[in-house]
Amino acid sequence: MSDTTKTADLFSFDHNGETYTFEKSLSVVRSPKWLRANRRRDELDLTFTILEEVAGADVVEVIDEMTSEEFQAFGKKLMRELSAAFQ
Fold first, then answer.
1. What is the pLDDT of residue 7?
2. Rounded distance, CA 33 to CA 21, Å?
3. Are 12 and 19 contacting, i.e. CB atoms less than 8 angstroms apart?
4. In sequence order, which residues have a C-beta less than 8 Å from that of residue 51 and are 6 or more positions away?
5. 48-81, pLDDT tens digit by residue?
6. Per-residue H/E/C for the chain
7. Burial classification of residue 59, based on how many CB atoms lie within 10 Å of its CB (0-12 exposed, 13-18 middle, 19 or more buried)
8. Which of 2, 12, 28, 69 has a CB 3.0–4.6 Å from the CB of 21, allowing a cystine?
9. Helix 57-64 / helix 43-54 crossing angle, nearest 10 deg
10. Angle at the Cα of 22 from the Cα atoms of 71 and 67, rounded to 5 degrees
11. By C-alpha distance, which of 28, 11, 24 is closest to 75?
12. Residue 77 region, left (φ>0) first, then alpha (ψ -120 to 50), else beta?
């Protein structure tokens, strides 16, 4: 199996000239068990819980270093992908 096939369903984003890819598919966070376990989190807590669940520690470090503007742009792209994962 090629590397492209393995990562086709993983979220990727560009930051400072590099491409970063999440370790797990966003579909992980749509299982009934995961949703039930995380149903009472506020929006901000849920956002970071999702990132910590699927991104991987190295990618979370990159996200932590983003400016507010970069994080907002990243968040918009991520929310579009999350919405698509729930279709």
1. 57
2. 24
3. yes
4. 59, 60, 63
5. 999 999 999 999 999 999 999 999 999 999 999 8
6. CCHHHHHCCCCEEEECCEEEECCCCHHHHHCHHHHHHCCCCCHHHHHHHHHHHHCCHHHHHHHHCCCHHHHHHHHHHHHHHHHHHCC
7. buried
8. 12
9. 140
10. 15
11. 11
12. alpha
Distance of CA 21 to the CA centre of its chain: 9
Higher pLDDT, 38 or 85: 38
19: tokens are 């491409």
pTM to 2 decimal places: 0.81
